[in-house]
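QA checklist item 7 of 12: single-chain prediction sanity check.
[x] sequence parsed
[x] length recorded as 470
[x] structure emitted
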Amino acid sequence: MNIINNLSFDLVVVGAGPGGYVAAIRASQLGFKVAIVEREELGGICLNWGCIPTKTLLHTASMISRIATAEDMGIVLSGKPAVSLPKAVARSRAVAERLRHGVQHLMAKNNVTVFRGAGSLKGPKCVKVTPASGTPYELDGDKILLATGAKPRELKTLPFDQDRVWSYRDALIASVPPSSMLVVGAGAIGMEFATFYATIGTAVTMAEARDTVLPGEDPEISAFVLRAFRARGIEVLLSTSVLSASGSERGVAVTLTTGAQERVSHFDKVLVCAGVVANVAGLGLGSTRVRTDKSDCIVTHGCGATDEPSVFAIGDVAGAPMLAHKASHEALVCIEAMKTGDVSDGANHLVPACTFCEPQVASVGLNEAAAMAVGREIKVGRYPFAANGKALAIGDSDGFVKTIFDKLTGELLGVHMVGPDVTELIHSAVLACGMEATEEDLMRTIFPHPTLSEALVEATLAAFGRALHI
């Protein structure tokens, strides 16, 4: 292998997603000489094939839903609006491309050297870069940060074929809406795609192996979303697994099993949303002391430190929750630790979760069961959007806000929301939980009226028997 000389850096980042590129920028700001290695597009999966394009398509779905209620708002439309999936997809790709160019600009602005190719470790302070074409070469790094993200989990019974059995990438670039679709998995990704395709006219069935949708959310929230999905005509099969699948003249013949019952159904397309797995294959971890856990995620000890002193890991490759904003936060904590040399535990466990299905879901902190499991006596408050003036004004009043407080101290332990634009409301709850705010702090805060945000203080009042508007 030919070695390109003088490629030595203070930090080599492998992976240019929301963890990697943020880490590279902050490291450069702190005076590091930084290289970043990326085998695909800058911005990673989130920007190019995840968060951004899916939310762009879901905005299209939201507009369709709003148009359906236009007459209730006093707007008279002539005829039913037509949906152009190619135009919607083209717009989502354009948004991703614009942001990708933005990341490229940020790398240049911050003097981060970008290397294109697959990165792998050759010992604790060396990264081998294998470009798509050309000769591999090596980068020396005093420190190495692994931020390689994750990839879709493939099921043995449903291997991806980019034709009838889709991963989320295939679902993002479809040109024709499927007549029918089976979505395997009712986590955040599955629920979001089910929302989009059901809105544009696809007959959607969901199969979830567990006994609830959005298993990571508060049970009340999950139950509410399940009812909402079924009410809009989406068939949701719980405690159901895919036993086998085969191609047929009608698309894909799938054998589904629920307990002892089996059924064979035919679908135009099958979209597998069975979670993701960390990208550790081919990373060369064996040349270092870096360890992985049973889920094949890299084991870290506070601030992204691994068992190899010069190697750090952040984001999806370092384990759940696999969320872009968690990766970006970890990036900042990790780089600051590299600079100071203090790699003690700097983890922030208040990671908000957002699902952009319809209705939207957002949460932070503990739910009731988790709070009681750690010995907390709790007070719980609920406030329905049906009693909120802004929600009624915009014609979107389904859902509620749920607050969980420590009964003895009044500390806010968790907030769980379902309903209109709750993904834009959860940040105030994150801040409140992080500051260990009490019910008094929230009750003394003046929330603007009329806004959806008032639901948070109303749910707080309800928890302490002081509800005003319910």
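[x] summary fact logged: The chain has 13 helices and 22 strands.
[ ] second reviewer sign-off
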